[in-house]
Amino acid sequence: PSRTFHGNNRLLTSQIISYYESINQCKKELPEYFNFASDVLDEWARLEKDGRKPANPAFWWVNDEGQEVKWSFQELGSLSRKAANVLSEACGLQRGDRVIAVLPRVPEWWLLNVACMRAGIVFIPGTSQLTAKDISYRLQASKAKCIITNDTLAPAVESVLPGSQFLKSKLLVGQGGREGWLNLKELL
Q1: Are 124 and 141 within 8 A, CB to CB?
Q2: What's the CA gap between 138 and 78, in Å, rounded?
Q3: Residue 102 near residue 148, CB atoms below 8 Å
Q4: Distance (Å, whole) CA 168 – CA 97
Q5: What are phi and psi of 59, to 5 degrees?
Q6: In the chain, where are the structural domains located?
Q7: Which helix (H) or strand (E) holds 113?
Q8: Which DSSP state fits 169?
Q9: Any idea what DSSP says for residue 162?
């Protein structure tokens, strides 16, 4: 027994399983390179733009106060390309470089995650509950070249930055500004 989701004719669970089984049995050809952002999200955006896919949200975030952020596949694609450019150009990162994000789960967390996929940058998520010691360890162990946080968590993050020899850039998510930090919203 299988079912469709949200009333659309989407792949059913059994179809998905059989697809992956066919890959394991070498009956399907795997692409040499695969990038979720460009191969999946951009394809869905194209189908949405051409009217061959209904305009369902690609991303829908609601906080405790009821504020919403909704992005279509086209909007998520466009924003993630801009964010990937910020990481590559303003932050000076290249494919394979590592980024640590110490953020609560705000929309920018997901946006930066997709942007890192798009640019081939390794996204290392960190919760807002990390201590200064945790952040310091992660910076040193990962050799991260960029750290991303918000204005609330920036003081705790800044306290450990002098010991980080690999860090090239610091990116702030939010309205405020801090000396020595780039602001994501302004750069987008």
Answers
A1: no
A2: 30
A3: yes
A4: 11
A5: -145, 130
A6: 36-186
A7: helix 107-119
A8: E
A9: G
DSSP state of 161: G
Which tens digits make up the pLDDT trace of 31-82?
788 888 998 899 989 998 898 888 789 999 999 999 999 999 999 999 999 9
Please check whether residue 128 is in contact with residue 102, taking contact to mean a CB–CB distance below 8 angstroms: yes
Neighbouring CB atoms inside 10 A of 65's CB total 5
- What is the C-alpha to C-alpha distance for residues 123 and 146, in angstroms, rounded to an integer? 10
d(CA 47, CA 75): 13
**Alpha-carbon span 44 to 96, nearest angstrom:** 26
Helix axes 42-49, 73-85, angle to 10 degrees: 140
pTM of whole model > 0.90? no
Look up the CATH architecture of domain 36-186: 3-Layer(aba) Sandwich (3.40)
Q: Dihedrals φ, ψ of 169, to 5°? A: -145, 155
C-alpha closest to that of 101 among 168, 36, 171, 181:
171
Specify whether the CB–CB gap between 150 and 106 falls below 8 A. yes
Per the listing, tokens 């305009």 go with: 55
Tokens 């890192």 -> residue: 116
